[in-house]
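Task: sequence design from structure.
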């Protein structure tokens, strides 16, 4: 379980590296680069994010959502509660948090997409393993085929703005980010159409495929068995890193999200790099002193919802006119460093918080809504529990 928390924390880091570029400027959302940052170092930072981060960590986060879905079902059984009504309330709570997140903080929210797609997962949660696997593969294959067909037969120029129009739109929207509360909320609401389109065409289907695979992995207790299978972990990396990094490089060279063919390459190869990242991290977390890495990442993943929202709060404060007003003023390399710096801060705060509270603030509210009663807060024992925390810090599962 602690490996899952650590992997979820790792996924949050990768997601923030990508999201901060959208929080800092409207140019990425309009599929153009800010002409104010056109140096080789700026291009290198964009290239690194596209090749090594884009799509990869969203897939991991989605996979772990499906994995945790099974843990939720088991928790409901232990509490002698009906799972479906409980999960429906949890999903509704997640959706409401996501709506508030979109309107107030960040228009690139994923919580609403997860909540809607979770309804499909809930309807399928009793299917056999083979059905879950085949459905996941079929969904993912459909996404790839649709992207390839679009790249070959559909001219994006017929329904996309020209490069000049996109630059103009991006400049105007970046200025809105520097405005007051009404301007910022209006910009978030104006972006809902694109958010829904992305959710329906790409993010939603790929999330469902990963949910199903994660559910299957949890049924098989994947992360309990992986540390004891070093040969499998090694082979995942031998295959995953070359294919995944190679695909990421091609994706970046072809223009990343500006090119449908590039997106198709990214969707095909991203799971390989995601799997390689997971295999490498699992190995590190079970190797001598490096096992401390699990203790660093696990608290962040334990309160993942709080930290996901906290990342948006930080972006809001840094870049909008209500905060420091840095939108459009921070270069890609500095954004990359900022993402890692903010995450390091979340590591410290998460560990401190869980030393005093049982749940993160957002998890506390969601649990209250899910169970329709106030959770037992707990204090001073860390979310892992006193004995468990000592065991983990001693390097034990």
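Answer:
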């Amino acid at each position: 379980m602690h490996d899952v928390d650590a992997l979820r924390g790792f996924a949050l880091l990768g997601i923030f590296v990508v999201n901060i570029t959208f929080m800092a400027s409207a140019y990425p959302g309009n599929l153009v680069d800010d002409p104010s940052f056109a140096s080789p170092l700026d291009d290198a930072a964009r290239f690194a994010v596209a090749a090594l981060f884009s799509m990869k960590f969203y897939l991991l986060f989605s996979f772990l959502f499906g994995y945790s879905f099974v843990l939720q079902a088991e928790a409901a059984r232990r509490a002698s509660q009906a799972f479906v009504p409980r999960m429906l309330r949890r999903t509704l709570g997640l959706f409401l948090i996501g709506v508030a997140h979109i309107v107030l903080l960040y228009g690139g929210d994923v919580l609403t997409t997860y909540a809607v797609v979770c309804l499909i997962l809930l309807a399928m949660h009793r299917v056999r393993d083979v059905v879950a696997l085949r459905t996941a593969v079929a969904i993912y294959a459909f996404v790839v085929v649709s992207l390839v067909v679009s790249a070959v037969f559909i001219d994006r120029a017929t329904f996309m703005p020209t490069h000049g129009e996109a630059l103009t739109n991006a400049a105007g929207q970046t200025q809105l980010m520097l405005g007051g509360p009404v301007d910022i909320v209006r910009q978030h609401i104006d972006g809902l159409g694109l958010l829904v389109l992305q959710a329906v065409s790409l993010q939603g289907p790929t999330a469902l495929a990963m949910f199903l695979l994660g559910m299957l992995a949890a049924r098989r207790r994947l992360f309990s068995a992986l540390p004891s299978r070093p040969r499998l972990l090694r082979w995942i990396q031998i295959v995953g890193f070359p294919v995944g990094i190679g695909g990421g490089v091609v994706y970046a060279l072809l223009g990343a999200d500006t090119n449908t063919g590039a997106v198709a390459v990214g969707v095909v190869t991203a799971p390989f790099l995601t799997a390689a990242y997971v295999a490498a991290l699992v190995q590190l977390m079970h190797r001598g002193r490096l096992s401390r890495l699990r203790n660093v990442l696990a608290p962040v993943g334990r309160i993942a919802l709080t930290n996901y929202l906290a990342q948006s709060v930080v972006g809001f404060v840094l870049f909008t006119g209500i905060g420091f007003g840095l939108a459009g003023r921070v270069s890609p390399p500095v954004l990359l460093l900022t993402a890692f710096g903010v995450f390091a801060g979340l590591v410290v705060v998460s560990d401190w918080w869980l030393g005093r509270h049982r749940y993160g603030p957002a998890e506390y509210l969601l649990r209250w809504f899910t169970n329709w009663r106030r959770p037992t807060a707990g204090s001073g024992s860390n979310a892992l529990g006193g004995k468990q925390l000592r065991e983990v810090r001693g390097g034990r599962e």
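The chain has one domain: 2-393.
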